[in-house]
Amino acid sequence: MSAATGNGMDNQRSIVNRLSAEDVTLAYDQRVIAEHLSVQIPDHSFTVIVGPNACGKSTLLRALSRMLRPSQGRVLLDGEVIQSMPAKQVARTLGLLPQSSIAPDGITVADLVGRGRYPHQGLLRQWSAEDERVVRESMRQTGVAELADRYVDELSGGQRQRVWIAMALAQQTPLLLLDEPTTYLDIQHQIDVLDLCADLHEEQGRTLVAVLHDLNHAARYATHLIALRDGRVIAEGAPKDIVTAELVEEVFGLRCQVIDDPETGTPLVVPAARTARARVAADKAS
């Protein structure tokens, strides 16, 4: 084999992303959500999945996280079929914040966040000063350090959401999947959480995949956007390259203008006024 050929193969390997889904069919019982769906999660990206309700966003995230086995096709993590990998190996590589999480009764914030360290424990490695440091830092980053001794079931919905994010951070995985991480949060804390996600991506080089409902948040924070409808990828790429009025109408059925965000220069979706939308609907009906 020539040196040139060898280098070409090395370059080809280097562009294979750590997490991908290949021609998957996703279903709950007999209800098919998506068929022949393929996605690549770019390494070191902040990938956001958007789309209308019931389009398959959370289902895709569950498949990528090993919580849902595809009926057909496969999900690959570091080149291996994710279902064939030991659970602890997956948990040391990929963290998940599910959409709805229920804490055990009577557990404190610090104890719940500490559960994020479980994948790093073993027969020869028990709780350490490093574990303690990581838990404290995860609580500090998410603004729940002062709640450490409180019971989780005493907290507000927004506080609980930040505690679950802290637990996911404590897992210290290079890939982090978040299903609607801004649920229950007011606008200030939504921005705080998304700023934190951006910091994890930019400063720590983590690969993040998030499902978000707010398209403007997605366009502002994502480096890679995947737009789904009816279990199909309609478009994907950098927000500035794919977010257009035509795409928003195709995916969400919403007439709008897309302008530059005055703060960031990223796409900003401005829905058409109610009267304008009513006029268009009347024209179509006539």
Keywords:
286 residues; alpha/beta; four-stranded antiparallel beta sheet; globular; disordered N terminus
Topology, element by element:
Blueprint: H1 3-14, E1 19-28, E2 31-41, E3 46-50, H2 57-64, E4 72-77, E5 80-81, H3 87-93, E6 94-97, H4 109-114, H5 129-141, H6 157-170, E7 175-179, H7 187-204, E8 207-211, H8 215-221, E9 224-229, E10 232-237, H9 239-242, H10 245-252, E11 256-260, E12 267-271, H11 274-285
Parallel strand pairs: 3-8, 3-9, 6-7, 7-8
Antiparallel strand pairs: 1-2, 1-4, 4-5, 9-10, 11-12
Estimated share of beta-strand residues: 15-25%
What structural class should be given to the helix and strand makeup? alpha/beta
H/E order of the elements?
Answer: HEEEHEEHEHHHEHEHEEHHEEH
Count the strands? Answer: 12
Domain ABC transporter: 19-255
GO molecular function, one term: ATP hydrolysis activity
Subcellular location: Cell membrane
Protein name: ABC transporter
Structural description of this entry:
With 286 residues, this protein is an alpha/beta fold. It has helices at residues 3-14, 57-64, 87-93, 109-114, 129-141, 157-170, 187-204, 215-221, 239-242, 245-252, 274-285; strands at residues 19-28, 31-41, 46-50, 72-77, 80-81, 94-97, 175-179, 207-211, 224-229, 232-237, 256-260, 267-271. The strands form three sheets. It has a six-stranded mixed sheet, sandwiched between helices. The longest helix has 18 residues, at 187-204. The chain is globular.
